[in-house]
Amino acid sequence: MSTDTIRDTYTHVIRKVRGQATSDGAGVKLVRVIGGPQLPDLDPFLMLDEFGTDRPEDYIGGFPEHPHRGFDTVTYMLEGRMRHRDNHGNEGLLTSGAVQWMTAGSGLVHSEMPEQESGRMRGFQLWINLPANLKMTQPRYQEFAAGSIPVAHPADGVTTKVIAGHVGDVVGPIAQPSTDPTYLDVGLDAGTEWEYELPAEYAAFLYPFAGSVIVGEGQDARTVETQALAVLGGGSRLRLKADGGPVRMILLAGRPLREPIVRYGPFVMSTKQDLMQAFVDYQEGRF
Ligand code: FE2
To answer: Which domains are seen in the chain, by residue range?
Structure first.
């Protein structure tokens, strides 16, 4: 298909994936949607975890000191408070609605700890790959409180928080040229429809976290239920319709890197040798 044909064609659901309940850090209960056996990655997306619980024992242990090298981590807090601290002297508090986009690059050691003892903790952590030539870039942060994330109302009953990418003239604050990501939090009121143009030939998915959504047009239309991830493809015109009640979802798109991925735990490199080097550098305190 030519790029023009893709632009005129409706996106449809290529596959649906359910996450797997697991725990990470010091016993934080979460659902791994990308990065588990069903969907090891969706280039350039390496991992998607959803955490959401109102039981303190499911999150209070947090994520004590651990390293990262070779990719971006994106934390989107829907509810709760999380403090992060790294070994380069950076520290910050993520509160409800905040986004932290961390380019781990050559590496850092950090902790991500809940700063609350009760109530609900809810959000997402997404890992996005870096191209081989940027894996050893300087670590950097792009961090935005809820009030600094622009909100677009592209149609009646449609509310979109634009974390990265754009909705009409509303542009998200995050810049990451290597994967050119779109990251939207989309809310549709009951009965609402919305059409959005995805970047052609990018990897894309959506994940409803409240309510369910109908994706596509005519015979290709499929319902995507709460906590099902829909891999999107086949066209650029994304048609969404709230299925029954209101729905809220995250919608992501990014340019695939089409490079080898050699990963183990918190290190994602392009060659086995670079992966081994990451372990050595970490053990010898070079992060
Ligand atoms: Fe981390």
So the answer is: 3-283 (2.60.120.10)
